[in-house]
Write a structure and sequence with these properties.
Layout (H helix, E strand, L loop, with lengths): L9 H11 L4 H17 L3 H5 L8 H6 L8 H16 L11 H6 L5 H14 L3 H14 L10 H25 L6 H31 L16
Amino acid sequence: MRHVRGTVDLDKVVAELREIDRRTGIDRSLAIGELILTQFFEGSASAWRNRRRNKNNSIRRLAGRPECPFCRSALNEAVSVYVAVAALPCVRTFGHITASHVAAVLRLPIDAQKQILEEADKAGWSVRELRQRVVLLRRADGERRGRPPTRIEVRALSLLRHELQKLDGMITALEQADFAAGELRLELPVLATELDRQHSRLKNLAEAEADVRPRRSVPQIGLAARTA
């Protein structure tokens, strides 16, 4: 395996990302993914996949730059899309498929990705329609309805509830703050935009699951003790 580069000019990478941000369509995501993979992982998809094991925090440090136009999850997703399209070059010829379509099929085997993206392109499926079909396909391939959740899934939901409780407390503190400093005031819209993006991801996941599961009551998440 090739070694990950030791030193990267983060300011230069941020400047390039800001230029790429002017583009549109799937080419924008592919350019982001290619830049990150090349600059931090020498173009090695395996090195990128092993970044946690190798304690490579390059993407996190890059996303932490105030001038960086993308959050860490968006950068990681762009690399995932770039790697997937590199394995399926036919995707570049599709007229309807976007980066979000590709991201929706990443958990499928490569052959299944190709087949369902071809179907999505011909039928003009929306990203939501594609996600729903991916859920159905994965269930048909072994993820049966009623499968007990894994420890990872249970822990993820538990952590999400915990973080939502913390988020509620932090927003309450901000509501009581005096935003005299212009710098703090300017940062709020950026944070709100990122929260909206994460909300959309959860909503799309919930809607896709609702379309393939029988209706049942779902316990509400208690976000704040003060509402008791």
